[in-house]
Amino acid sequence: MSGGAMQPTLAELEKVQRGILERIMKLERCHLPQQFSSYSLSPSSAADRAASATVDRLSTILRSNNVSDFIFKRVPSDYYDLPLEARRDVLGAASIHHLCKSIVLVNTQAQPHVTDCSDPKNSKYYVVVVQYTARFSAEMVKNFLYSINDSKVPKKKFNLRLAPEETSTALTGYEHNGVTCIGMKTNIPVILDEAIVKLNPDFFWLGGGERDLKMGIRTSEFINFVKPFVFSCSTA
User: Which pTM does this prediction carry?
Assistant: First the structure.
């Protein structure tokens, strides 16, 4: 170059490029918070490493089943002490109605031969995904199961109750407040409350496999992959 100026080396150019990319990522995190998980890509603590492994495992399952619109976010340890409005803000959810939970139910009056989840229509256990703002109705589930069995199973043989925590953990592989329908140890039939399907936008939040890890997912993609029973099982 003229005037004695020296051309920048390749290493210097790469350094400048990295700096530009880092600034772009910071800007994107500010303006598009739902596109990034909230924990470090290089977790330093044991809890972070465990959550990162959970994210990797579940992300692989989701992508291999054509689910692309999802996100994982770490939440503070006092998350469940917060009101729903504060939880909404932590996650960047569209509304408090987009905050959902997965609960494991056991049919305490199942017929003697019904001991597992081999028959989705007449299973010993079910996982129900319902909004935090809704009131779950076991009676509505009972009526639905009775109807899909063509009334061949007496209605009194359906009595859905919340499964003991140790049973839930053993079946799903997830602890309390971390239960998700993805990657469970047992192939438990899933029920998705119809109210969630009606949400706008169609992107809801639920447990992400760890107590402090939450997952947001596009409703249509969730349904295509999980293939849940979809019906109304709650009241406002």
Answer: 0.80
